[in-house]
Specification:
This protein has 274 residues and is mostly helical. The protein has one domain (20-271). It is 74% helix and 0% strand. α3 packs antiparallel against α6, α4 runs parallel beside α7 and α7 packs parallel to α12.
């Protein structure tokens, strides 16, 4: 005899049901990373190599507006770039589950519809926290440090994780929207100009006028600028409104992305296979 669980009806029961299912999915994604250390190593290799490459090879030729050490200017940009590249990591994970039939298996089970996407977002947040910790240690090893208060430092890390949480939902939506892993290569290609046309490696005022304006209003630039300000690192601020209000924009941009892509992701998951 097949027993079918009773679907909760009250809001409290449905929330508890969704949370429980999300935790099951979270543990599954985390176990995948533990059992595939190659994914962990490859995910950390690129940012660490970038730190060494830009910090030591190109760093001597870079100048920071207002003066200061380029490696201290660089590290907040590297932290934020790593969070932004999480779009591709989340997207690829969702597409892999879809191609293997795991997503359809979840949909055929008596699970909360929000559980799968919430579980994926929670697991990716935990993985990103580990990535950020490793990058911070790498930064400390090459001479970066923060000069503000401990609370300001925690605020900067919080804004970086807020950006990661926002782009997780963009990655989930793209992973549910694209037809195959091969089609995801174009998105990976777009991530490089998006993260480069920002204040990640070079101050926007050193770019051509039109390109500098685009860089200043890039959501990534807001988080980088806010992190530099809270860390007390050189290179924050500027003449434009966006540069002078980077902390405000570092909150508003992710909130807008979350408000758009959370409902879109849940709705897209519910419509799969229809």
């Amino acid at each position: 005899m097949i027993l079918t669980p009773v679907i909760p009806r009250s809001p409290w029961e449905r929330m508890r049901w969704g949370t429980s299912d999300a935790w099951v999915v979270t543990k599954r994604v985390l176990m995948q990373r533990v059992r595939q250390p190659g994914l962990l190593i490859s995910g950390l290799t690129f940012p660490i190599v970038s730190v060494l490459l830009f910090g030591y090879v190109f760093g001597s030729a870079m100048s920071v507006p207002g003066g200061g050490d380029y490696r201290e200017f660089l590290m907040p940009g590297m932290f934020a770039q790593s969070m932004m590249f999480g779009i591709g990591i989340t997207m690829t994970g969702m597409l892999a589950d879809t191609e293997r039939g795991i997503t359809n298996r979840f949909r055929s089970m008596p699970m909360a519809r929000s559980g799968v996407v919430l579980g994926r977002s929670a697991a990716d947040m935990l993985n990103s926290l580990l990535d950020l910790v490793v990058l911070v240690l790498c930064g400390l090893a090459v001479g970066w440090t923060w000069h503000g208060s401990f609370g300001a430092m925690l605020g900067a890390l919080g804004l970086l994780m807020l950006l990661r949480f926002a782009v997780i939902w963009l990655g989930i939506f793209l992973g549910l929207l694209l037809p195959s892993l091969e089609s995801a290569s174009g998105i990976w290609g777009l991530l490089f100009p998006v993260t480069m046309i920002a204040n990640t490696f070079v101050a926007p005022e050193m770019m051509p006028g039109w390109l500098g304006t685009i860089a200043e209003w890039n959501p990534l630039s807001a988080t980088v600028g806010a992190a530099r300000e809270l860390f007390g690192n050189p290179g924050f601020g500027g003449d434009s409104w966006a540069s002078q209000n980077s902390i405000l924009l570092a909150v508003l941009w992710p909130v807008v992305l979350i408000a758009i892509f959370v409902p879109l992701s849940v709705r897209r998951y519910r419509k799969l296979g229809r």
